[in-house]
Amino acid sequence: MGGYALYVWVSYGVAAVILIANIVLPKYQHKMMLKTLTKKMQRAEQLK
Amino acid sequence: MTPIRKKRLLLIVLMVAGVSVAVGFALKAFNENLMFFFSVTDVAKGKAPAVKDFRLGGMVVNGSVKREDGSLAVMFDLTDNAEVITVYYDGILPDLFREGQGIISKGKMRADGVFEADEVLAKHDENYMPPEVAESMKPKKP
Amino acid sequence: MMKFIYMMASPPHFYRLAGKWLPWLSGITLLLLAAGLYGGLIYAPTDYQQGESYRIIFIHVPAAWMSLFIYIAMAIAGAIGLIWRIKLAETVAVCSAPIGAGFTLLALITGSMWGKPMWGAWWVWDARLTSELLLLFLYLGVMSLYSAIPDKRVASRAVALLALVGVVNIPIIHYSVEWWNTLHQGPTVTKFDKPSIDVRMLIPLMVMAVAFKVYYVWALFLRVRVELLERERNTQWVKELLKMNKG
Question: What secondary structure letter does DSSP report for B128?
């Protein structure tokens, strides 16, 4: 990379981190959301 | 569209227009402060501050770079194709610094008319091409 | 016509539709990213002036374009939400903010990584850099305002207004390099003349730009699905969905 390797790879690395975070985070939140909502629903049904 | 929606749309358009006009006037008022550097002609016309530090931008004149032996100090002429100012700088130059390159230096005018810089930044242009294309675009020597 | 739009924009319909699209969006994004990276890092030639350091352009410029594009999308969705009170539009506006903030941050960091070796400075307060930093603060303002107001529908309206006020910053960012003298270069691609970049560099740049656009839709759909579930948690369709999931 002609002496600029550090700058170039840090740029591509930061890109990877940010792009992956914006995919993994909502996927995790989706899973958690389904879990909590299911639990809530089950609890509400038991009370009936 | 129902009347209420029309009203909302109109309000939004008015709000965005109002903010734009206000910001436009503000930017116009502070136009000078938004300039990152003074051109060589600006300085020759006396627009730059006399005592305070300011930034001077221009093109390094071909063949004008003189280095002092045994130190980092360098002298070169800066031009905007109308006026010329000599710059003195003692420090590390950016990789892109070369003759014919646009640069921006920060510093003060000395009494002898030389600009003493304590920082030199290189400004690259918006052209991107491989070296062999750049070579073929150069005017042929007679 | 309006009826059709309302049906398409109904939360249960969109939730299902987005779910079906997700595998396609992820596949297309990854393919385009792979092609763009190959083009940018291997196929594109070295620059005559900046050497290899210019390869940051393939991240920096598409990210900066996305930071503006997503802001405009967010403001338009916000305006549609304000005028027609369509829940899906409100959700799209709100969910765009973190993705846009990510791209803005990416543009700023990669710009810094490019500025240090080429200009000789990590950061300068010229008009382009300062207005792009302001854009990051606008995104962060939208995100924190939304989380500060408990009622999601009220919050959506407040956020849409803030986003619309901030729209004025978009032309300022774009034209900053022409209106004022800056350290940042002028436009290479988005100008009336022919782009001043070699075609072997332009192609990977455009592939990356399209890849980031598809990525945005992907990331947006993921977020919108979470947000719709949360907002609609007491409705019949979410309950049915949960029962199906359990069973």
Answer: B
Instruction: Give me the residues paired with residue B136 across strands.
Output: none
Hey, what are B89's tokens?
């700088």
* Ordered DSSP codes for B38-63: EEHHHHHTT-S-SSS-EEEEEEEPTT
Chain B residue closest to C184 (CA)? B123
Chain B residues whose beta carbon lies within 8 Å of the beta carbon of residue C172: 23, 27
**Which residues, numbered 26 to 45 in chain C, qualify as contacts with chain A under a Cβ-Cβ cut-off of 8 Å?**
26, 37
Domain containing residue B15: 3-32
Q: Which residues contact B130 (CB under 8 A, 6 or more apart)?
A: C45, C46, C47, C48, C198, C200
Per-residue pLDDT reduced to its tens digit, C33-90: 999 999 999 999 999 989 999 999 999 999 999 999 999 999 999 999 999 999 999 9
Task: Decide if A21 and C102 are in contact by the 8 Å CB cutoff.
Answer: yes
* Contact yes or no for C226/A30 (Cβ under 8 A): yes
Evaluate whether residue B73 is within a structural domain: yes
In one-letter notation, the amino acid at residue A32 is M
pTM across the whole model: 0.93
Asked whether residue B83 is assigned to any structural domain, the reply reads: yes
Give the whole-angstrom CA distance, residue B105 versus residue B103: 7
B7 found inside a domain: yes
Q: Identity (one letter) of the amino acid at C107?
A: A
Structure tokens at C155: 């919050």
Structural domain of residue A46, as residue ranges?
Answer: 1-48
What DSSP element (H or E) covers B27? Answer: helix B3-29
**Position B131 in a domain:** no
Average pLDDT, integer, range B12-24: 93
Alpha helices in chain C (DSSP H): 2-8, 11-38, 57-84, 87-118, 127-148, 152-166, 169-179, 199-231, 236-246
